Amino acid sequence: MALRCFPIWVCPQTAYYHYPLLGFDTKRRRICLWECSSSASQRAITAVGGDVPYGRELKKPSDEMGLTQERPQLETFHRDLSMLPKPLTANSLTSSAWDDSKVRISFQGIPGAYSETAALKAYPNCETVPCDQFETAFQAVELWLVDKAVLPIENSVGGSIHRNYDLLLRHRLHIAQEVHLPVNHCLLGVPGVQKEDIKCVLSHPQALDQCVNSLNELGIQRVSAKDTATAAQTVSSSGERSIGAVASVRAANIYGLDILAQNIQDDANNVTRFLILARDPMIPRTDRPYKTSIVFSLEEGPGVLFKALAVFALRNINLSKIESRPQRGRPLRVVDGSNNGCAKYFDYLFYIDFEASMAETCAQHALGHLQEFTSFIRILGCYPMDLVS
């Protein structure tokens, strides 16, 4: 029994669909229905014809196509069925979920940056894609150029990276994982120099601030650079023996620099927390400790922030992080006071991380209760906690 293809028209005139992300318009094509035939000599064919203008008379089909004379002519090709993709099995689905050799992760900076190291910690066999800006790393995921992005969000010494909190709200990516990366700032120099030869050191301003005591002891002048890996690249390119860089061990290996000193940060317990972002959210589970990140704004009223936070305390849910950011849409509002003059207030967004999975009933009830006090709420992600640094 063979199959025969009949074209049908969806509407009496050509329609256009617009795909803004793909950047082109697509005409509506003829939709073909498969029909069974008792003729064993006929072969299954797939119609991929061009458009036939409305009102034009259909031509008679060619005999070599194997269709009856009542059918309209179609441009066709014969598909090799062996080339069609094979259905996934349970085994292949399980293995592909853990196969990080196919994962492409964007990060801000150049090879050797701490963000790249965090991506490799999460996915040791992944392909990393450097981007010049954090925003570019987000856009690379949104445009399907990469699978995920890695973003530093806070440091145990330097605090929160406020710019990146704003980007979390501006883009529609989901937090899929967190990575805690211990910071090992190294003093790097061109091959053959001693640390006493270094008179000037380049690095990111935050890295320089985290190594103030060590650099002061060596009497080294500090100069800001775009990031730590760029500093290492600059020193390697210059070949100057009196210029060093504060960067990672990985940056030293990539750019051929000697490690003159390791762990020169003032705080030995210096850890940066990174977020792995994806287009689709993770499915929350309860098989291991999970963390949920949300952002919300509150209605006006006395004690409303206390009430909002109490919804977690009442259910014994621990808050691991709270961050407030002024709303960009309406950063300042003026309210008349009861006495002379007026009071000025900022409208804030509150970012909260709490230690519970959205699959748990207590978390669902807490968010339902929280909605009573909020004018806006959004779940940024529910993801496994990183318990190993």
TrEMBL record:
<keyword id="KW-0028">Amino-acid biosynthesis</keyword>
<dbReference type="InterPro" id="IPR018528">
    <property type="entry name" value="Preph_deHydtase_CS"/>
</dbReference>
<keyword id="KW-0809">Transit peptide</keyword>
<keyword id="KW-0150">Chloroplast</keyword>
<dbReference type="GO" id="GO:0004664">
    <property type="term" value="F:prephenate dehydratase activity"/>
</dbReference>
<feature type="domain" description="ACT">
    <location>
        <begin position="293"/>
        <end position="384"/>
    </location>
</feature>
<keyword id="KW-0057">Aromatic amino acid biosynthesis</keyword>
<dbReference type="InterPro" id="IPR045865">
    <property type="entry name" value="ACT-like_dom_sf"/>
</dbReference>
<keyword id="KW-0584">Phenylalanine biosynthesis</keyword>
<dbReference type="GO" id="GO:0009094">
    <property type="term" value="P:L-phenylalanine biosynthetic process"/>
</dbReference>
<feature type="domain" description="Prephenate dehydratase">
    <location>
        <begin position="104"/>
        <end position="279"/>
    </location>
</feature>
<dbReference type="InterPro" id="IPR001086">
    <property type="entry name" value="Preph_deHydtase"/>
</dbReference>
<keyword id="KW-0934">Plastid</keyword>
<protein>
    <recommendedName>
        <fullName>Arogenate dehydratase</fullName>
        <ecNumber>4.2.1.91</ecNumber>
    </recommendedName>
</protein>
<dbReference type="Pfam" id="PF00800">
    <property type="entry name" value="PDT"/>
</dbReference>
<dbReference type="InterPro" id="IPR002912">
    <property type="entry name" value="ACT_dom"/>
</dbReference>
<dbReference type="GO" id="GO:0047769">
    <property type="term" value="F:arogenate dehydratase activity"/>
</dbReference>
<comment type="pathway">
    <text>Amino-acid biosynthesis; L-phenylalanine biosynthesis; L-phenylalanine from L-arogenate: step 1/1.</text>
</comment>
<dbReference type="GO" id="GO:0009570">
    <property type="term" value="C:chloroplast stroma"/>
</dbReference>
<keyword id="KW-0456">Lyase</keyword>
<comment type="function">
    <text>Converts the prephenate produced from the shikimate-chorismate pathway into phenylalanine.</text>
</comment>
